[in-house]
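Field reference: sequence -> structure
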Amino acid sequence: MTTSDQRVAVIIPAKDEEDRIGATVRAARAIPHVDLVVVVDDGSSDGTQKAARTAGATVIRHSVNRGKASAMETGASVVAMRDEEGRPARLLLFLDADLGESAVEAAPLVEPVLAGAADCTIAALPPQEGAAGLGFVTGLAFKAIRRATGWRPRQPISGQRCLTRKAFDAARPLAAGWGVETGMTIDLLVAGFTLQEVVCEIKHRASGGDWAGQRHRADQYKGVFMAVNGRRFRRVRVPKAKRRGVSVDFEPYNAFGG
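Structure field:
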C-alpha cells in the first residue's frame, strides 16, 4: 500500500452548531486524503442536521444528547461500515464542530499517522481569542497524563485528533463526557501506542467568562476528574521502570521507548 491509497474519514460530534457546522464540513472535505465526513448530531434542537447534510456530510442523529464519547463511537462505527473489504481501514480524524473554515488547518495531523511515525496525533492550538479559563482543567489532565505515562503534552485536552483504526479500537470504551481525550491519551500510551502533538493553526469558539463558560469548564473538570480517578483506581499506568524518560515537545512519544 502507498500513502496515496490511504483514505481518511473526518468525524465531527455536534450539538446545536447550525451556524458553524456547514463551514466546518466544507473545510474538512478539503483536507488531503479525506473522502468521507461524518457528522454525529448529538440531540441538537436546531438545524445542525440539515446544515451538515447540505454541506456534504453523512449525518447520523442521536435523538437525545448522549455525550461526546458516544458520538465519537457512533461516528467510528459508521466509518467502519463504509470501509471496503480488501482496502485499509480509513484513518479517523476527529474535529470539533465549531472550527468553521479553520478546520482545514487540521491537515498536518494526518501526515505523521499516514507515514507511520505516530499512531495518534493531537493538535496543539495557538492561544484562542476570548478564552477566559484559568487552566484548572488543562492542569488536571496534564498532571494525570504525566503521572500515569511520563508524557508531558502541551495541550492534553485537545479534541482534534487523527489516529489509526487499531489505536481507536484499543482506546474503547471511551471515557464518558469531557474526560474522553484525557482517558484516550492515557489508555493509548499504556497500551504501547505512539502519540505526537502537532502545531495546527485552528480556531474554535472559546469559552468566555460568563455563566455559560463557567458551567462548561465545570463540566469539563468533572469529566476529566472522573476519567483520571477511574484509571488511578484500576492502576492504569506505565511502570516507572519501563518509561523512556522525558518527552520532547512535538516529537513522537512512546512511553516504553523506541
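Note: Helices lie at 21-29, 48-54, 68-82, 110-114, 136-149, 165-171, 180-190, 211-233.
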